[in-house]
Amino acid sequence: MQPPWTKNVDYSTKPIFVCWETTKSCLLSCRHCRATAIKSRLPDELDYESGIRLIDQLLEFGDPYPALLLTGGDPLMRPDVFDLLRHAKNQGIYTAVAASVTPLLTREKLELMRDLGVEIMSVSMDGASAAIHDRIRDIPGTFRATLEAIETAKSCGMRLQVNSTVMKSNLRDLADIFHLAREKGAVAWEVFFLIRTGRGSALENPEPGECEEVAHFLYDATGYGIPVRTSEGPHFRRVFIQRQKGGEAPRGELYTHLSARLRELEGEPTNAPAMRLNATGDGKGIIFIGHDGAVHPSGFLPLSLGNVKEQTLKSIYTTHPLLVGIRNPANLKGRCGACEYKVMCGGARSRAYAEFQDVYQEDSACPYVPAAAAR
After folding, report:
1. Residue 350: in which H helix or E strand, if any?
2. Rounded Cα–Cα distance for residues 14 and 333 (Å)
3. What distance in Å separates the CA atoms of residue 159 and residue 140, rounded to the nearest whole number?
4. CA-based nearest residue to 235, from 362, 101, 333
């Protein structure tokens, strides 16, 4: 979900993306849900008028405005979501919607999103079969409904992104997920590396070596014509740069399996590996607003920095000491602080907080040992 102008943005003055958790309400109960979504809406949600004011605050950053991602929960649980999208369109703001695959996601609503200028919609696919996907989503039939929603979105002329979360339970299925997403016409694949927060706190993290092998597989996947991006996996940028410089792929069993399966399903790459390298991170080019208006560095980093009902988003984003601090690579600790890739990568600050309760600590999902740290 990336607008085309992201290369020349000063992340200290404006974000690329503003993610708004429009509601915690959702009809699903996914095992890794960051939001710990519930069935009913909460009384402290930003109301319609507050939502309009939030959208208008994006104009204060100047043109080009930050893109607005409506997420949740499920944004379709809000009866005013299309009025909010209409207002954003009238203000010239790039919008995206992360929708849950439930009976609320109808053709009529997809057509309305399209007509309101929603640039891209994302759906989640965490397995290439019902056996894996439905177990994670915890509702039988969700996998089938997801494939139907993708087909309906395509027939409505909506651009669609597939999101997948890397977990212990689906590591070996990632090549099949990519193939299915590409086969179904996804215009991008965004891969989230699990952060143990929300309901995801109960899940087992992949080992650092497994995360590394997945990143090398993702490098290979960039050669098949659709953008591959990561969330909370910035070490992918380091792997991409290393491979571009002639670095070797790992010889581990997981990478060997995923690489072979990718070629079995897709054939040889059709393009040279390519990706847009943006040095974004939690609170650096990306900012998150909770359902109640509280501002956080990301949806996976539950530290409140203020509230848009009391301060402007621009003032919080540009001046809050924590945000200023985590944008400065000199503040990073451990291997991240010693790493020669710390400007482009910087590690996942959400994972550092989840694992060490310190936003500046090293990213435990990355096994890379910089030369300075080894010394």
Report:
1. helix 349-356
2. 25
3. 26
4. 362
Using an 8 Å Cβ cutoff, are 125 and 162 in contact? Answer: yes
Domain range for 52 is 14-266
Residue 212 maps to a domain: yes
Q: Which two tokens stand for residue 358?
A: 């310190």
Chain centroid to Cα 293, Å, comes to 20
Determine the Cα–Cα distance for residues 77 and 109; give it in Å rounded to an integer: 12
Query: For the chain, what is the domain count?
Result: 1
CA distance 207 to 249: 17
Angle among Cα 261, 215, 204 to the nearest 5 degrees reads: 95
Q: Which DSSP string do the residues of 246-290 spell out, in sequence order? A: TPPPP--HHHHHHHHHHHHHH-S-SS---------EETBEEEEE-
Q: What is the pLDDT of residues 281-333, one digit of tens each?
A: 999 999 999 999 999 999 999 999 999 999 999 999 999 999 999 999 999 99
Q: Is 296 helix (H, G, I), strand (E, B) or coil?
A: strand
Q: Has residue 310 been placed in a domain?
A: no
The CA R_g of the chain, rounded to the nearest whole Å, is 20
What pLDDT digit, counting tens, does each position of 99-147 carry?
A: 999 999 999 999 999 999 999 999 999 999 999 998 888 788 999 999 9
Neighbours of 271 (CB within 10 A): 10
Structure tokens at 230: 């990561």
> What CATH number is attached to the domain comprising 26?
3.20.20.70
Please count the residues of the chain.
Answer: 375
Question: Is position 289 within any domain?
Answer: no
Strands (E), 136-187: 160-166
Q: Is residue 49 part of a domain?
A: yes
| Residue 201 tokens, joined | 């706190």
